[in-house]
Every structure is written in C-alpha cells, then in structure tokens.
Amino acid sequence: MAYDKFTVLKSTAVPMPIENVDTDQIIPARFLKATKREGFGDNLFRDWRYNVDNTPKQDFVLNNPIYSGEILVGGKNFGSGSSREHAAWAIYDYGFRCVVSSFFADIFKNNSLNIGILPVQVSPEFLDKIFTAIEADPKTELEVNLPEQTITIVATGEKESFDINGYKKHNLMNGFDDIDYLQSMKAEIETFAAGRLY
Amino acid sequence: MSNTPSTLFDKVWDAHVVRKIEDGPDVFFIDRHFIHEVTSPVAFLGLQNRGINVMFSERTFATADHNTPTINQHLPVEDPLSANQLKALEQNSAKYGISHWGLGNPKNGIVHVVGPENGITLPGMTIVCGDSHTSTHGAFGAIAFGIGTSEVEMVLSSQCIMQPKPKKMRINVNGALNKGVTPKDVILYIISKLTTAGATGYFVEYAGDVFENMSMEGRMTVCNMSIEMGARGGMIAPDETTYAYIKGREKAPQGEAWDKALAYWKTLKTDEGASFDVEYNYNAADIEPMITYGTNPGMGIGITKNIPLSTEVEGGKSTYEKSLNYMGFHEGEQMLGKKVDYVFIGSCTNGRIEDFRAFASIIKGRKKADNVTAWIVPGSHIVERQIREEGILDVLTEAGFQLRQPGCSACLAMNDDKIPAGKYAVSTSNRNFEGRQGPGARTLLASPLVAAAAAVTGVVTDPREFI
Ligand code: SF4
Questions:
Q1: Confidence of residue B24 (pLDDT cuts 50, 70, 90)
Q2: Are residues B45 and B180 in the same domain?
Q3: Where in this chain does the record put each Aconitase A/isopropylmalate dehydratase small subunit swivel domain (chain A) (predicted)?
Q4: H or E stretch at B112
C-alpha cells in the first residue's frame, strides 16, 4: 500500500500508559472479515473506546478532546498477540504515523514498518519523561526525526536516539513498501535481466 | 572469480542477487514465474490498484490446475467460485500478455509437471510459484520455491522478490536401492528421519549415487517433497541425464543457445571442499518401500514395519495419539493387510509418465480389487497422451481402471475429487494432513508401486510380492 513519506514529524501525542497492549485490543478479531484495507480506524481500540451500545466511553483517552496528534505513546510491550496486519492498518487509518514505546512485539513492529508507521523504541526512563511531560501539558509536542533517528521533547529539548533497520528507514523516508522499493529499481533490474542467459 | 570452493546453491543464488541490502534481504531476480488460478487473482488486483504493469510478461506462465475437474473438462465448470478463478486467470493472462494454458489446452496440466515437460524449467534458473511444491523444479539444478500472494505481486511487477538467503544442507544417499524401492520411498524415508521441521530454514542439495542414477522424473519426486521437511527447497546438480531430458523440448534452447547453455550448466556443481551448514548421510540399502501411518509426511515407516509405539516417537504423546486416532490406527499395529478404500495416483509428486509405467507394471494381467475406488489422474495432457501411446491405457482398462483428466485433483481436493470421511486412501501425493484429501479423509502416502499393489489386493500390500 502506498503511504506518505516519513521524515520529520512534529506533533502533540496521545498517551496510553498501559503495558502489553495486544492486537486483540487494537482491533478485535470480529472486525477482520472485511476484504478491503480501509475503514479499520473506526474500530481502533473498539472495546476500550465504545460501550456495548456504541456510545463513547468518556474515560478513554481517544475520546478525550484535550489529547490529539499523530503520535501514540504506549506502555511497554506494545502490539503483542497475533500477527494480524489489521492492527497496524487500524492505527494508520485512525491517523497515527508514529508509535512510541519502551518495547514492541516483533511482528507488530514489522507490520508497522511495512505499512508506513514508525515504531520508536525509547528507554523506560525516557518513556516516563514523555508521559510526565504530556500529563503536565497535553499540548506537549514531540519531534521525531527519522533521518537523524532522534526523538525530542520540544519544550525541554530532552532528546534520545532510536534504532531502525537501514532498509526500512530508506523505505519510510521515501514512502515505499517492498513493491515500491522494487519499482524504484526498475532500471537496475532491466540491466540485470538483459545480462541473463535466459 | 575467486577460487574459494562454493556449492551449487551458492552459485545459482549469488548469480541472481540484483542488489544486496545492508541489514536487509537480497533483491533476488526470478527467471521463471508460474501462476495458477488460486493464488494469482489478488496479486493482479494489487497491480491494478497501484496502476502498474507486468514487467516481463514472457517470464510468467499460467496454467489452470488446482480446482479443475478431472472429468468432462469440455463442459463449463460447475462450481461458481472455481469457474470465477479460472476466468480471472484467463482474463488477467490475456490482459497482460502472459501465456496461458487453460482447461482444454493441449499443454494444460499441473504447473510443476508442465514446466519441465515443455522445457521451461532449466538448470541454473530461479523459479517461483504461489504453491509450496515449486521445489519440484530443483531437480534440474534450479533454485525453486513457493511464494505468497504479495510476492506474486512483486514478481509480476518487478521480476524480483526480497529474500534473505537460507542456510545450506546436503543430504547424501549412497549405495544401490533395493528391489521395489522408488524415488518416493527415498524421500519418504529421508523425511521420516529428519521429521517435518528438520530442514526448516535450509535449502537442501541431494547428492550421492542414488540421485545420480535416478531419472529426471524420480529427481522431481524427491525435490517436490523437500518442503515436507520444512526446507525452503531442494536441488540436484544437473548432469547428462538432465541434459538428455531437456534437449528437444519445445521451449528448451536450441543450436548455438543450447551450446552456450550447456557450457554454463556444466559449471553447476558443488566444488570439492565446499561447506554446508549441516550434512546427513544415508544408506540406500536401509530403505524399503515406505508408507505413512499418521497425519504428517514425517510419520512414515517401511511397509513391513509396525506403527511405532508412542514411547518410541519424539514429541508429545497426546499429539501422537490424536494423530493415530484420526487415522483409526493403534500403536504397534502392522500396516500390511489394512483395508484400503481408495487409491489415488497423480499429483505433481507422482503424476508423470514413469509413475504410470510403474503402476501398470503391477496392474498388468491383474484386476482391480472390488472394494477399491481408484482415481488415476495424469499430471498433464502430455502425460495423458503418453499413457495412451504406450499402451498403458489398455492395461488399465483391462484391469478395470479408468483414466481421468489432468489436474491436481485429490492431492488437495479443491475440486470434486474428495475422499469421503473415514475412508482410507493410498495416495501417491505429498500431504497426509487431516482433511487434506477431503474432510475426515485418511491418507496413506506411498509410491505408485505400493498404490498399485493396494489397488489389486484391496489392502496395504508389499509391492515386492508382485515384482
Ligand atoms: S498436485 Fe498438489 S501439491 Fe502439486 S501443485 Fe497441485 S495442489 Fe500443489
């Protein structure tokens, strides 16, 4: 799927200081029967977000208008559970481009990177600083700089570096997935093919 | 060129890396791409959504096989979902200029049978298809493996996929095979030793006298089942047998191109001293005709042996018992003499001419057992023609068997060829998973000789009695 390029993202953030947020919470299994990839954002955190009668749960963070932004900050071990790519689709479709946590489940991390979400893994201490800053001021901005691989709390200037696989970084910065990446190599592939015996 | 000894696998793999991505996968060039009706429609949809074209339509070949009927192929396909997929394959092929061998086409047949048969599969190639038994083509010294639908889209749009390089395993089998022991028995024996996960993460090279002395059909049977021990694929170095098989086939190189290709093929062998991550050695003399008694291809034994006791097998006792329960068998029992309801000969494992010759060698002059329903399904129309021309059809008919039309058939039972629940089928295909040949079906994997012996006696029988 094509997604927007990711370079530097400066945005307020939505705090979710809960550990082990699993894929069943991110998108419950009953919403997986769709045959298209659009519309999953409506059901992101469905059971935390809505009552059985579909009225919003007032105490859930996504229903609290003082929090907004393209960055979701979660507790440790974010995205555990199944391999469903739908979890990442739902987060993207809702409008998040970056998830910050002190630890990510492996498959969720890969799925996210494949569809244009940047998972930023920070130290537990830095994660605490972010939560504290947002708690003090919901309008706290974070700056995620992919080329430099840093995340900064804008108001205080506190900064930390994060890791990312070089191939995935290139893809994100160019808004590519594997197919786009291969498309970008067409001239090289063309030349390679011309040199084949058959 | 460096002088470091390298393996056949390295030589072919390295020659196809377009770009090495640092701490990422290799961009891996694909020479030949096979598609069929089941795993391709969503990939074409993806292309359409992105508005991109097929990059090298001449490198992709389409055939209809997975859900085609094996009788009355001239009539419209009844099942609407199957008919839809077949139509999508035809339309997509036409739209993108891909050669398409649909139902009724004289070259139609199972994808892994028609590729080699028409000279599309050649040594040193990389070959992929949205079907795990693509490993079959490794028999020619090609790197061949199955891919997922998103990768089908990658190959269509760029002729490449992103692949990390697997580890290397060599399996050597030396000595002379006993009477009645076929390539199918060799691979079932290896899988029974290595288990279904024993080669996970590896690409296998088969080496030694046994494979050197094997026909191309036999080598394809062996490579076909590499996936059943978890391997990405398996391959055998090309030799005179390989060249002789390829020469003169429709799409094979000719004239000057042939000479050039041949010179290249002769370099395709593992150098002396090249190293593998792991190596196994087996003795041909230890192998007898094999049969499976459980619900994965690793659960196989020599046909005269008893079903192992749960104390003798690795892994959980409860899984083992569940498996035997499904089969309706007990530990310690003999397989010989067990009643057989169905016999299936066909599939990309054993649906080639040599398999029907083997089957006929036992059937000849005998009669089909009354309690047995037999489905005899050639792998392709070309095989079907050979069966007629060689007089095998007459042998079959005299013994009370009928020949069906080509396709995957009961190998995965996507069409109407389903083994009924609870019934026992001796099958020359590749998977005996629960429900693989139909809900509740009980599959005994074996060679065409074992299948033939069961077909005339109605029970599990040692084929050596008839040879
Ligand atoms: S015969 Fe069976 S294994 Fe072979 S291609 Fe068909 S479905 Fe796959």
A1: confident
A2: yes
A3: 5-124
A4: helix B111-117
Specify the residue for token string 């993207």: A92
Cα–Cα distance, B24 to B415 (Å, whole number) = 40
φ/ψ bin of B247: left (φ > 0), alpha (ψ from -120 to 50), beta (otherwise): beta
Annotated binding residues of B for [4Fe-4S] cluster, written as ranges, equal 348, 408, 411
CA dihedral B243→B247→B251→B256, nearest 10 degrees, is 90
pLDDT band, residue B205 (cuts 50/70/90): very high
- Where among B288, B318, B344 does a domain terminate? B288
* pLDDT tens, position by position, A47-101: 899 998 999 999 999 999 999 999 999 998 898 866 567 788 899 999 999 999 9
Token duo for residue B287? 């192998």
Q: Which domain holds residue B50?
A: 1-288
Helix (H, G, I), strand (E, B) or coil at B29: strand
Return the exposure string of B193-211: e unless at least 16 CB atoms fall within 10 Å of the residue's CB, then b.
Answer: ebbbebbeebbbbbbbebb
Q: Say which CATH number the domain at B95 has.
A: 3.30.499.10
> What distances in angstroms separate CA A74 from CA A42, A99, A146, B424, one per listed residue?
19, 7, 19, 54
> B411: CA distance to ligand 1 center in Å?
6
Half-sphere exposure of B71 (CA within 13 A, CB side): 7
Residues B269 and B306 in one domain: no
ipTM: 0.92
Best of A163, A179, A180, A185 to mutate (most B CBs within 10 Å, chain B): A179
- Residue B408 CB less than 6 A away from ligand 1: yes
Res B40: pLDDT: 84
Backbone phi and psi for residue B216, each to the nearest 5 degrees, phi listed first = -65, -40
Residue among B115, B127, B351, B116 at smallest CA distance from B232: B127
pLDDT at A35: 42
Q: Are residues B260 and B337 in the same domain?
A: no
Cα–Cα distance, A179 to B299 (Å, whole number): 40
Mean pLDDT score across all residues of chain B: 95
Same domain for B309 and B248, yes or no, is no
Confidence (pLDDT) at B82? 86
**Distance (Å, whole) CA B233 – CA B242:** 18
Please report, as a single letter, which amino acid is at residue B134: T
Residue B259 touches chain A, beta carbons under 8 Å: no
Whether residue B260 sits in one domain with residue B139: yes
Number of independent structural domains in chain B: 2
Query: Is residue B38 predicted with pLDDT exceeding 90?
Result: no
What residues contact residue B74 under an 8 Å CB cut-off, 6+ apart?
Answer: B104
